[in-house]
């Protein structure tokens, strides 16, 4: 039992900087939201998703992703979005968190058959 715990810890430390592509279904996350709050809520939901997947409280949303979410206006948010979540080391020494997550937009023609993928930088 003790040995398995040690193996787990070493693998976790080496994988602290990682990038993955995810598809986020915004349609189900925004169901029932007030029209004028849809796009802001979409950004909040993306942040929440990134926190959950990458286990970091510091999440930074790229401006291109923000533009994509707002591209059809405040009410008509795209149903799905493909994002790249990159967990990175914080360069700022006096930061509370050692790691942060950068969320970037990945353009795709179709969402059909896509799965979560690890990305090699």
Describe the protein's architecture and organization.
The chain is an alpha+beta fold. The chain is built from four helices and five strands; from the N terminus they run αβααβαβββ. The chain has helices spanning 2-14, 26-29, 38-54, 63-70; strands spanning 18-25, 59-61, 80-89, 99-105, 117-119. Strands 2-4-3-1-5 form a five-stranded mixed beta sheet. It is globular, with a radius of gyration of 16 Å. Mean pLDDT is 90; it is low at 6-11.
List the helices and strands and how they pair.
Blueprint lengths: L1 H13 L3 E8 H4 L8 H17 L4 E3 L1 H8 L9 E10 L9 E7 L11 E3 L2
**Broad structural category:** alpha+beta
**Strand portion:** 25-35%
Number of helices: 4
Report, as a whole number of angstroms, the end-to-end distance: 34 Å
Largest sheet: 5 strands, mixed
Strand order of the largest sheet: 2-4-3-1-5
Assign an overall shape.
globular
Number of strands: 5
Radius of gyration: 16 Å
Listing every helix as H and every strand as E from the N terminus to the C terminus, the arrangement reads HEHHEHEEE
Low-pLDDT regions: 6-11
Mean pLDDT: 90
Helix content: 25-40%
Please provide a brief summary of the model.
This protein is α+β, with helices and mostly antiparallel strands and 121 residues long.
What features would you highlight for this structure?
five-stranded mixed β-sheet; 35% helix; 5 strands; alpha+beta; 121 residues
């Amino acid at each position: 039992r003790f040995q398995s715990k040690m193996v787990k810890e070493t693998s976790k430390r080496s994988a602290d900087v990682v990038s993955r592509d995810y598809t986020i279904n915004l349609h189900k996350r925004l169901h029932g939201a007030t029209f004028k709050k849809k796009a802001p809520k979409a950004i909040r939901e993306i942040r929440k998703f990134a926190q959950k997947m990458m286990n970091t409280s510091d999440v930074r949303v790229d401006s291109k992703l923000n533009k994509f979410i707002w591209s059809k206006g405040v009410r008509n948010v795209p149903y799905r979005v493909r994002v790249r979540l990159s967990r990175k080391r914080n360069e700022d020494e006096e930061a509370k968190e050692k790691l942060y997550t950068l969320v970037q937009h990945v353009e795709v023609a179709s969402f059909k058959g896509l799965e979560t993928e690890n990305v090699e930088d």
